[in-house]
Amino acid sequence: MHVGPIALAFPVFLLAIALEALYARWRGSRTYSLPDALTSIHFGYLSEVERTLARLLVAAIYAAVYQRYHAFELSAADWRVWLGALLAYDFCYYWVHRFGHEVNLVWASHQVHHSSEYFNLSTALRQTATGSLLKWPFYLGLAVVGVPPVVFATVAFIDLLYQVWVHTEQIGRLGWLDRVFVTPSNHRVHHGQNDYCIDRNYGGILVIWDRLFGTFAEERHSEPVVYGVRKRFQSLNPVWGNFIQYRELLAASRAAPNLRAALAVWFGPPQGWNEPVPHEDFTGFQRYSPSSEGGYRWAAVGQAAALMALTLYYILMAESLAWPARILCAGGILLLSAVIGWQLEGRWRPFTHASATTHPGSAANGSSSPVSGDAR
Amino acid sequence: MMTPEGATDLVLALTCAVVAYLRHRQSPGLGVALCSLGLAAIFGVARFSGAEWAAGPHQFLVLVTSTAAVPLLAWCLRWPGSLPSLQPRAACLAMLFGGAGGVIIVGLLGFKLWAALALLLAVALLLTAAWQRKDAAFAAGTLLLLAGGVVQSTHWSPAGLPPVAVLHLLVAAGVALAAGPRSP
């Protein structure tokens, strides 16, 4: 049994989420919604499942490029190598993240992380399950310089881990730190859909990359951040959430008049080439909060516990499982997370007459303001 | 000590830098492609001057250049009004996905025909562009780049120069004539 770092960190994440939720409740701030937080965690499960399937391939590519083309024999015993690798990784991460927002194909994957209209530690776990295969080319430079695979994997994990704590509304501004490091304040801006927040603050650990490349924005107290994406994801189904944007891109490219336009759909920016951010008024904005009956909600919570057990088993055992068993297990996680999502939305009610059968993505079951979005 | 391959790589790097500087406002995509070609040449200068550490990065960049930068260069010259030619983001994406595909298909899977196909596509684009433009300098540049391809595949060289040095000179002259500011 191989216990990976994510599996080890998982109980710590859950504890931190519970503590933040309690603290927020004590302060009287409405930063948590149980269905939303559960959905974020379920997105995280799917992301981990994908990693167990795709990680080997991506790691193999990095290792092969390192072996064939590396310039220097950098020692993993030298702390300067680690520091340099972390800085270089963070620089590459800035560009990966920026492309994630500015190229439709990559945004279709990354929008998952921004789809929640709440902002708390559970949002950090809301990760895409389709991203691994799109990001790796950005990091090949590190392999060519000679960053050993073990150092690369570790700094990647450090960069990822750092970004957990910045997903909170419970920590205010931190003075000069907000202008050097990625902090809760400047990351709130990144998750906002207000005009001034769009395509800002892409950094992973350091926000100086944004200051260097002109994408930095400070949080404004005069304008509270409205979280989420303008093309609202009004569903609690993580499977649907991972594919909705690809479906829309496919439909748009099919409707394109020629090949050039079809390619531009996939590789263009979400709001068009060099177009200004369209103004959006968020007065009266209400966060998506579907109304499921209490009984079904608590049934979903019970199933969520079962899903957690299944996912942890899978993450711990994946490497020792045969491929058919892996795929069966991954399929089970996918199905259960979708079923829980439907139950939380009140769409799927076994043993009673279903009253809501609308397509996921519509606002039929949720109380929400009719904010019409642009391409984002 | 700098070998003939190193000296000619320096000529190629300088040519790419000058042409990229002159053309990047008109066609950012051309600038991106030439920067990639120039970067590969800079590592070539280091490699052929005795810096062994530069061999890997040079090979890597040559691979990316041949599977992504050269086709992008040809694309921008063939269709100067296209998105990869006018939008830096589109050009970077073409480099990224083209280069990543090249690294996997040629570098890791050993399917070298892919690089040859990419160069063939570039040559076809340049020839059609030359045919359309009726520009003598552009046509001469295209022929020089084509001659570079012939030298690379046959390892033939005149005047006792190493084939790689001849390739560098032909590509430098070809780039200057085909992509230089004389062409529209």
CA-CA gap between termini of chain B:
40 Å
Q: What's the arrangement of strands in the largest beta sheet of chain A?
A: 1-2
Binned strand content of chain A: under 5%
Quaternary state of the chains: heterodimer
Secondary-structure class of chain A:
mainly alpha
Gross morphology of chain A is: globular
Q: Low-confidence runs of chain A (pLDDT<50, min 5 residues)?
A: 353-376
How helix-rich are the residues of chain A, as a percent range?
A: 55-70%
Order of helices and strands of chain B: HHHHHHHH
Strand content of chain B: under 5%
Radius of gyration of chain B: 15 Å
Average pLDDT of chain B = 90
- Strand element count of chain A: 2
Shape of chain B: globular
What is the element string of chain A, with H for helices and E for strands? HHHHHHHHHHHHHEHHE
Largest sheet of chain A: 2 strands, antiparallel
Helical run tally of chain A: 15
* Gyration radius over CA of chain A: 21 Å
Report the count of strand segments of chain B: 0
Structural class of chain B: mainly alpha
